[in-house]
Amino acid sequence: MLGKTYLTKQASLLLEFARTTSDSDLSAKLVSKAADLKSQADPLPDKDQGPKAPDVSPEQTAT
């Protein structure tokens, strides 16, 4: 499953591309796809909670 951060970044890039193109049909499709990605990202938690890499140890308190 893709995380909220990834989906938000992709939507942002699509909107940036939509602003730079002179093709109105392409721009409309990019904006529509960005809206789809945003609707997928909205219900997800703010922080991506994917599995940690095997070499990452739990945070330890300094002594």
Plain-language structure description:
The chain is mostly helical. Helix content is 56%, strand content 0%. It has helices at 4-20, 24-41. The relative contact order is 0.20. The model has no long low-confidence stretch (mean pLDDT 82).
Keywords:
56% helix, 63 residues
In short:
By secondary structure, the protein is an all-alpha fold. About 55% of the residues lie in helices and about 0% in strands.
What is the string of SSEs from the N terminus onward? HH
Average residue pLDDT:
82
Cα-based radius of gyration, to the nearest Å: 17 Å
What profile does the largest beta sheet have? none
- Structural category is mainly alpha
Shape: elongated
Work out the helix count. Answer: 2
Give the total of beta strands. 0
Note the beta-strand portion.
under 5%
Poorly predicted parts? none
**C-alpha end-to-end distance:** 38 Å
Helix content: 55-70%
Secondary-structure map:
Blueprint: H1 4-20, H2 24-41
